[in-house]
Request: fold
Amino acid sequence: MRLKSRLADWQEHSLLSAAQAEDIRVFEKDRLRRLFHAGLKYAGLFAILLGASLIVAANWDLFSVHARLTGHVLLNALVAALIWRWRDNPAKAHFREGAVYLLSGLTLTLLALIGQSFQLQGDIGGLLLLWMILITGMVVMAGWHERIARLWLAGFTVTLFYGIANIYEGWPPQYATFFCLTLAALLPLAFWCDGHIRILRDLNPPFADMLVHGGLIGAIATGFAASFVFNEGAAKIVAFTGLETATFYLYLAGLAGVTLAGFVTAWLVFRRNAEIIVPALCAGFVFLPFIIPVAGTVPATAAFVALAILLGIAAYQGGHERLLNFCILAVSARFFILFIEVFGTMLMTGWGLIIAGVLLIGLIRLMRMAHGHITARREARHA
Amino acid sequence: MRNALLALFLIVPLLVPAGMIIRHATAKGQEWQIPVTGYDPRDILRGRYIRFRYDFDANPLHYCAGDCIICLKGTPESYDATVVQKDYAGTCTAWINDADHFLTQPQHFYIPEAIAGDADILMRQSDGDIRADVIIRQGRMTLKALRINGTDIRDYIREQTDE
Reply:
């Protein structure tokens, strides 16, 4: 519903006076205009940066190796000097954020240019890893805005996926598998813990918040992704490692012990923060396909739904409405995916499409009912 | 304390790349010419690099177990290459670490976008001798240039274009 008709509706139901409605209209109009101008400004800036990058990328060979590298280092030094100059100036906070963003990008392009100029044979994963190591301290110390923190997290995620791909290409399968299982079980917890460390919270609260949220989102994504291991079965992973089943499970038990110790320590160190239940549940579901080594779409769906229900209960108890809504949506979506997995070929027929449509409407109705029921119960409890 | 940390984290992203530049720019060592083969200019080159493999004409990798090197004996103009364990590096005129990488993995040679199309045609049609100029020092091999019939491939293309 558009703002105008919505305001009229509220006025009609005596929720809003004519003067208030007019004030809201003026405020929204002004905000829209400012947003439009800011959007145009950023689009222009982006076009300039893109154009400059393309010119440099297409013509780097016109300059000698030493000239282009020296020029790039000097440019980076200039931006670093600007960040230093604007460090304690609140009036220049936006410029400083922009400079941090720029220097992060320039550091990556400088490393890439060094690779090109000296014909280095490293891979993109290594390049991104070195880049993340070099910029993280600067982002923490000078990027005091959640936008920069989110960009850092996006960069970290891309680096992580490239790193995992490299590990699976270059490492023996058993090392690669256990390294990735360790990451799945403990990396979200490490993020969550880092975000709660007092020194970091004092240095850069938006960055610390982003680490906590990143840890929770990473845990949930990993936990749900782990349920899909049931589709093929954990036996396939055990076979991939080339280890004897007993040896594999011995190592897995060791990893489970380390994970448990990590969570207990975090629970005690961070004053029994109830939020830790989210990464703990998800870490448990990373191990579940190995504890119950069955294969098929039904166990995969069951694991997914069980995790969603458990997370939903935790969210309900903790009053995290967004997570609760997400869990309800996830359960509905997973049931629909199950239908596609089991009766996929039926979708080729008219009846298949009709059943899918009915199922989708039914799931949405169920989802809304569940949401309404949970909200009513919570309100009754608060009353 | 805060300012000291900020200064440190602003300087490190400058110092590390600067150190890399100095290290590679001042790298010294004997220059060898290694034949290359299996170059694939068909589509990758459209990006910005030529993909190729070194043709050391060495014994296959399965003759060596563990940490293996490519051992070069002779002169840069005429040499024999063998794959041996790293313990035998002292007996080689020059050696290259990570034999598996340099014998089996594709290598990249970056070239300017402007000559990529011409290099594509040239390498597809050429039946000439293509070699890589490399500097080998203490097991590290640094690629300097690709030569076609003795001429740097970038100069070769520019000469052809000028004609």
